[in-house]
């Protein structure tokens, strides 16, 4: 047997393997007696190895059984787990092979529940679809008619779920697309929504938030309960405010554009963990922040992009704020010649740190780029990345931008275009005829969610797993 395996291996690789090395590989894959572990799951006996269980990771149920070196003294009796044995068999096979094979008699909901108990949901997700790639995305599901009226925004969750804002209500879905308790702000319109983690969502709205002064709150994604409100304090007084665009950084900070009762504008900063205000940037004369439509934290530059866009403001304004010295370090405005104004009516903007530029899209669905190394530089409109024109729908939606793992995404009416390479060449397009124009889309948890303007349909796009060779 060893001779046959050695022959096959030598004919598939240029490397030479000795019989001793192959024997070691076989012993490692089969596991020795000291490495073997027995589980009694719901009355059925399973035998595996610590090497297999190590694939679950330290944060899993199995990781809690071992020390930092994945050592476990073999118990005198089998480890008993009072859970479903059929699902355990599927999950154990997933740890062994990396493939997910679910028998027809096991409901998907049951398997997901068991995977959550063992801390293996990420493994199940990874096995179900491959790493995110905009050029390989396939439509996997659509969810229809969850609320009356037009949708406002869709936000992808970190675990593959999403939330959808409709007026004063936010509908929350887990990664199985099962809806949790909705969040209702009592007729206060939701301006923006963002995920802190898989358990917590931040909503921005008008002052009072429907439940007391303050325009922003942290809610449970599973129960919809308000956990705490974010207050704005100035000169030891709590101020009423309307919260707008949201952004987050790696230091557990929340940024929100704020508007006071007397039309004073600024950017508030809060701690995600405590909910306490840590900083505030007030608009100064000559710094036309306005009621910002877009915030984006730039990790490398340690700055916050603030964009006030058309048509909220005739002259679009984009700036970078450095909170370390309360200074605006870069800005751009579309003020210029009358002929250039129409061309520069920016609908959305996104910073691209790798190329030191900001990408913008105008009302004609053209892409442009602003060099961050030039203060107040002009827009370079790219003909190579210009969106292809198509028939305008009855109710067109404003284009939006997203950047994910080196790929640029731009929604245009009823489709989303994907651009790649240094020249941002159009490489693919995601289109779904049902649901009308796309009013918003979001990428996260290895999924793309696209919210349509008609019947509140949102589509779910995933990357198929790579074929087994």
UniProtKB/TrEMBL annotation:
Protein's GO biological process: protein homooligomerization; protein ubiquitination
Gene3D superfamilies hit by this protein: Potassium Channel Kv1.1, Chain A
CDD domains to which the protein is assigned, alphabetical: BTB_POZ_KCTD-like (cd18316)
Pfam families: Beta_prop_At2g24240, BTB_2
PROSITE patterns from the UniProt entry: BTB
InterPro entries: Beta_prop_At2g24240, BTB/POZ_dom, SKP1/BTB/POZ_sf, T1-type_BTB, WD40_repeat_dom_sf
Annotated metabolic or biological route of this protein: Protein modification; protein ubiquitination
Domain of life where this protein originates: Eukaryota
Every BTB domain range: 35-104
Stated name of the protein: (rape) hypothetical protein
Organism of origin: Brassica napus
């Amino acid at each position: 047997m060893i001779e046959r395996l050695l022959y096959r291996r030598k004919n598939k690789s240029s490397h030479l393997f000795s019989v001793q090395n192959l024997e070691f590989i076989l012993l490692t894959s089969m596991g020795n007696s000291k490495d073997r572990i027995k589980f009694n799951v719901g009355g059925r006996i399973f035998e595996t190895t610590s090497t297999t269980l190590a694939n679950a990771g330290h944060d899993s149920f199995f990781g809690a059984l071992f020390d930092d070196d994945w050592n476990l003294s073999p118990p005198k009796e089998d480890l008993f787990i009072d859970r479903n044995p059929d699902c355990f068999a599927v999950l154990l096979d997933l740890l062994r092979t990396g493939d997910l094979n679910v028998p027809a008699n096991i409901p998907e909901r049951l398997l997901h529940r068991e995977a959550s108990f063992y801390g293996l949901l990420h493994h199940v997700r990874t096995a179900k679809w491959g790493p995110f790639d905009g050029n390989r995305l396939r439509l996997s599901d659509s969810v229809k008619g969850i609320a009356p009226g037009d949708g406002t925004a869709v936000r992808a969750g970190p675990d593959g779920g999403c939330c959808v804002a409709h007026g004063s209500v936010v509908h929350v879905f887990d990664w199985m697309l099962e809806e949790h308790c909705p969040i209702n702000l009592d007729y206060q319109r939701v301006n923006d929504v963002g995920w802190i983690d898989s358990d917590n969502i931040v909503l921005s709205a008008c002052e009072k938030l429907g439940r007391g002064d303050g325009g922003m709150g942290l809610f449970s994604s599973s129960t919809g309960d308000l956990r705490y409100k974010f207050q704005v304090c100035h000169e030891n007084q709590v101020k009423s405010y309307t919260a707008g665009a949201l952004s987050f950084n790696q230091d557990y900070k929340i940024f929100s554009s704020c508007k006071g009762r007397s039309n004073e504008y600024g950017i508030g900063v809060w701690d995600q963990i405590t909910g306490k205000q840590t900083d505030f940037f007030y608009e100064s004369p000559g710094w036309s922040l306005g009621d910002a439509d877009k915030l984006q934290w730039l990790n490398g530059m340690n700055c916050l992009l603030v964009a006030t866009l058309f048509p909220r403001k005739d002259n679009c304004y984009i700036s970078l704020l450095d909170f370390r010295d309360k200074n605006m370090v870069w800005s751009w405005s579309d003020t210029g010649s009358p002929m250039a104004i129409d061309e520069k009516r920016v609908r959305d903007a996104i910073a691209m740190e790798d190329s030191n530029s900001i990408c913008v899209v105008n009302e004609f669905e053209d892409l442009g780029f602003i060099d961050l190394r030039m203060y107040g530089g002009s827009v370079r409109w790219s003909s190579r990345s210009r969106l292809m024109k198509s028939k305008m729908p009855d109710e067109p939606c404003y284009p939006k931008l997203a950047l994910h793992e080196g790929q640029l995404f731009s929604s245009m009416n009823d489709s989303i275009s994907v651009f790649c390479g240094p020249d941002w060449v159009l490489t693919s397009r995601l289109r779904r005829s049902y649901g009308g124009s796309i009013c918003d889309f979001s990428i996260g948890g290895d999924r793309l969610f696209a919210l349509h303007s008609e019947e509140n349909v949102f589509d779910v796009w995933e990357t198929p797993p790579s074929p087994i060779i």
